């Protein structure tokens, strides 16, 4: 009976190379017996598939925080951001009042080609209504997405048009970009924001770096804040632009995996200017490989807060039913020998709550609350500065989290979607006026930039707009707090302004606005304002 073979399936999945005779291990027999007894005697009917998943998850979760099981259904959804594309119609949408609102069409994508525009409301897909039925985003995606070359019929409600508009769209490959922004801050400082390390990141980064260098960039701010990682190969490729040939980037080592070194190849286009990396507690894994290598070789200045501390190498192992396990096989080490992974052996629950603990202990706000024992001291490879292991990468210059403007009132407005809903409503009501005053269509790049600069200088929300936002919050049972609103008001206005800019232009303009609110970003500009500041930051030693 198939259910009685569950233990054999376990063994095949976990230790594929074992011969059949080894399945007679007492512990494997125990699993087999428990499975048989559950199937034979349990009070309710059982699912072998579900039991297998529970058993696999239990085994992996007892090992370390990052070994995991991923079902067939979850695997595709989790893989898409790293694969760099998916098949669909090419729209960014937002559910607003039970209606799918098109926030943006992907440039050159199927929807843009047939004439769908931002502000359209999709009310039905293949004659199935999706408006007013409280359908989940994932269910809507299943209806809209499909294999490249297939078609989907949708009906759209457009402001100012009485009748529904019918569209027949042929699905295509839709790119998922991992470089969120790249622009010149002034005539010599460039900025690149990398959101994750995917299969397309290296090509995207090379393109951005080349364009900025061609535009006269001498110094670079590389933003890895909240970058949770991705493919190690992409991280290594990016570092190849900054290190000399044969300089160590990272090495991996594990119980059953011998040490493997990864070094700069010297084949990529070099950038030899001043470099500043922005990191925070959300920077993890591949981001820490980049940060660790740059710091160890004294190649640039790290600014921000201590990174997450995820330095475990996962090997993906496919299972017969299309699911997958990700098993930790080694650890990452920086060129100086620091282990990126923070400890987890004593209590995995505490490990998972680490960021909350950092906040509660004051680490995110006060540099002097962070201490490292001398046993974890290492030295950079050129300037011989003391640096520390023990988990994560501590930046050269610490910038505390601003707890004044990020108030509880602001967090509630964000968490309940009030700010996002306000933005969507504002854009929809004022789209024609905004487009007329700050045009972008059929303009050259220079003209678009001039239009954006005008927007940056002129646009501001009125007091009436803020009052409307407060009223929207009260509808969601968020009581107005005068003091907290006062502290967060500029941040809220900046967020709304940036999101409107993203709708009118793109993500470059969004980050140009939001970065002006970032203390970490502004510290980077201060460091790059003079050679003396940069040299002092690069030579700074922790007390």
Write the layout of secondary structure elements.
Blueprint: H1 6-14, H2 26-41, H3 48-61, E1 68-70, H4 72-83, E2 85-88, E3 91-96, E4 99-105, H5 110-114, E5 121-125, E6 128-129, H6 137-144, E7 151-157, E8 165-170, E9 172-175, E10 179-184, E11 189-194, H7 201-214, E12 219-223, H8 232-239, E13 248-253, E14 260-263, E15 274-279, H9 286-296, E16 301-304, E17 312-318, E18 324-333, H10 348-352, H11 354-361, E19 377-379, E20 386-388, E21 397-398, H12 408-415, H13 418-437, H14 445-458, H15 463-475, H16 482-504, H17 507-514, H18 519-527, H19 531-538
Parallel strand pairs: 11-12, 12-15, 15-16, 16-21
Antiparallel strand pairs: 1-18, 2-9, 3-4, 4-5, 5-6, 5-7, 7-8, 10-11, 13-14, 13-18, 17-18, 19-20
Helix pairs in contact: 1-2, 7-8, 8-9, 13-16, 16-17
What does this structure look like?
With 543 residues, this protein is an alpha+beta fold. The chain has 19 helices and 21 strands. The protein has helices at 6-14, 26-41, 48-61, 72-83, 110-114, 137-144, 201-214, 232-239, 286-296, 348-352, 354-361, 408-415, 418-437, 445-458, 463-475, 482-504, 507-514, 519-527, 531-538, and strands spanning 68-70, 85-88, 91-96, 99-105, 121-125, 128-129, 151-157, 165-170, 172-175, 179-184, 189-194, 219-223, 248-253, 260-263, 274-279, 301-304, 312-318, 324-333, 377-379, 386-388, 397-398. The strands form 5 sheets. Strands 3, 4, 5, 6, 7 and 8 form a 6-stranded antiparallel β-sheet that branches. The protein starts with 5 loop residues before the first helix and ends in a 5-residue tail after the last helix. The model is unreliable at 1-21 (pLDDT under 50).
């Amino acid at each position: 009976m198939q259910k009685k073979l569950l233990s054999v399936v376990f063994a095949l999945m976990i230790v594929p190379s074992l011969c059949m005779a080894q399945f007679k291990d007492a512990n494997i027999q125990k699993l087999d017996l428990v499975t048989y007894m559950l199937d034979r005697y349990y009070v309710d009917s059982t699912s072998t598939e579900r039991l297998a998943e529970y058993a696999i998850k239990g085994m992996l979760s007892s090992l370390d925080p990052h070994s995991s099981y991923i079902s067939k259904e979850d695997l595709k959804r989790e893989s898409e951001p790293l694969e760099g594309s998916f098949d669909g119609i090419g729209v960014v949408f937002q559910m607003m009042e039970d209606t799918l609102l098109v926030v943006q069409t992907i440039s050159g994508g199927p929807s843009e080609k047939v004439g769908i525009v931002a502000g359209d409301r999709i009310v039905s897909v293949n004659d199935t209504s999706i408006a007013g039925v409280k359908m989940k985003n994932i269910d809507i995606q299943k209806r809209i997405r499909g294999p490249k070359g297939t078609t989907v019929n949708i009906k759209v409600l457009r402001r100012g048009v009485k009748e529904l508009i019918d569209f027949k769209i042929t699905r295509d490959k839709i790119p998922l970009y991992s470089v969120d922004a790249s622009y010149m801050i002034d005539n010599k400082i460039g900025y690149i924001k990398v959101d994750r390390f995917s299969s397309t990141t290296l090509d995207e980064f090379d393109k951005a770096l080349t364009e900025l260098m061609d535009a006269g960039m001498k110094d670079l701010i590389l933003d890895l804040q909240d970058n949770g990682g991705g493919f190690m190969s992409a991280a290594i490729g990016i570092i190849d632009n900054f290190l000399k040939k044969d300089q160590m980037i990272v090495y991996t080592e594990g119980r059953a995996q011998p040490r493997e070194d990864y070094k700069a190849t010297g084949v990529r286009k070099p950038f030899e200017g001043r470099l500043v990396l922005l990191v925070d507690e959300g920077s993890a894994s591949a981001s820490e490989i980049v940060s660790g290598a740059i710091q160890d070789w004294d190649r640039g200045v790290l600014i921000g807060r201590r990174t997450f501390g995820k330095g475990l190498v996962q090997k993906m192992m496919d299972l017969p039913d299309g699911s997958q396990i990700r098993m930790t096989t080694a650890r990452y080490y920086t060129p100086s020998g620091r282990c990126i992974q923070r400890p987890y052996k004593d209590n995995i629950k505490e490990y998972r709550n680490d960021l909350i603990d950092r906040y509660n202990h004051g680490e995110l706000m006060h540099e002097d609350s962070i201490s490292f024992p001398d046993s974890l001291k290492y030295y950079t490879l050129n300037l011989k500065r003391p640096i520390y292991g023990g988990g994560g990468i501590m930046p050269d210059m610490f910038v505390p989290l601003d707890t004044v403007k990020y108030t509880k009132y602001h967090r509630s407005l964000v968490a309940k979607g009030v700010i996002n809903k306000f933005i969507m409503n504002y854009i929809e009501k004022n789209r024609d006026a905004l487009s007329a005053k700050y045009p972008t269509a059929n303009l050259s790049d220079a003209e678009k930039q001039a239009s954006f600069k005008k927007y940056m200088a002129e646009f501001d929300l009125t007091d009436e707009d803020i009052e409307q936002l407060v009223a929207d919050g009260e509808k969601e049972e968020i009581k107005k707090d005068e003091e907290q609103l006062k502290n967060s008001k500029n941040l809220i206005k900046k967020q709304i302004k940036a999101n409107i800019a993203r709708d009118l232009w793109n993500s470059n303009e969004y980050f140009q606005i939001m970065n002006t609110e970032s203390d970490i970003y502004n510290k980077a500009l201060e460091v790059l304002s003079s050679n003396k500041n940069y040299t002092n930051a690069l030579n700074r030693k922790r007390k």
